[in-house]
Amino acid sequence: MAGAVGRLVGCDTAVQREPVTHCDTSPVLRGIEQIDWSKHNHAFGPADDLPRLLHDVASGGAAADRAVSDLFGTIWHQGTVYDASSVAVPFLGELAASNDVDVEIRYLLLALIFAIGRGKGYWQVHARAGSRHGHLPADLATVLEAESRTVRACRQAVQQVANELLENLSTWPDRLWLSVVGLVVVAGEVGSALLDGVVAEASRRLPPFGAVGVATIAELVTLGTTSSGQVDALAALDSELADFVEDFSDGGGLDLSLDSYFVDVLVERLCDTNGGGDRV
Question: Which of these, 96, 34, 103, 36, lies nearest to 71 by C-alpha position?
Answer without folding.
Answer: 96
